[in-house]
Amino acid sequence: MxxxxxxxxxxxxxxxxxxxxxxxxAASEQAIPDPPPPPPAAATARPLPETVPxxxxxxxxxxxFDRYDRDRNGAIxxxxxxxxxxxxxxxxxxxxxGRLGFEEWAIRTTTKFATADGDKSGAxxxxxxxxxxVKRRAPARRDCPPVESDG
Length: 151
Known about the structure:
Keywords: Kinase, Signal, Transferase
Structural class: mainly alpha
Order of helices and strands: HHHEHHEH
Number of helices: 6
Distance between the termini: 85 Å
GO molecular function: calcium ion binding; kinase activity
Helix content: 40-55%
Pfam family, one: EF-hand_5
Strand order of the largest sheet: 1-2
Strand content: under 5%
CATH architecture of the domain at 57-130: Orthogonal Bundle
Protein name: Histidine kinase
Largest sheet: 2 strands, antiparallel
């Protein structure tokens, strides 16, 4: 019985000490200083460009090629290609059973590699690799009415 009372007393002392520490920290906080005034608009204003520069398809394709070409030798080997395809593993379930067997994955991936490797050299050149790119749809054009100004 005395162990129970000693445990209860120590728990109450710990809770009391926690409350004292909590309240002492809250009282010692200092007020946050006001932010400095913003610089004048004329000093920081720069005209915005009319159009936003976009990456060309070649630039995007070069970055994609470099992600696959780990040893930076200018060619993607079968092993380099398959290493990156593991990321798309879940998309390769051909029979729709929710489980992906190695055969499903290997057949689709090696078929894609063999199709892209046009000269059957066992490695893809930049041109051959470009045929494996995901075909992107152009964004739908939205014709919005012009904004009326209150001149």
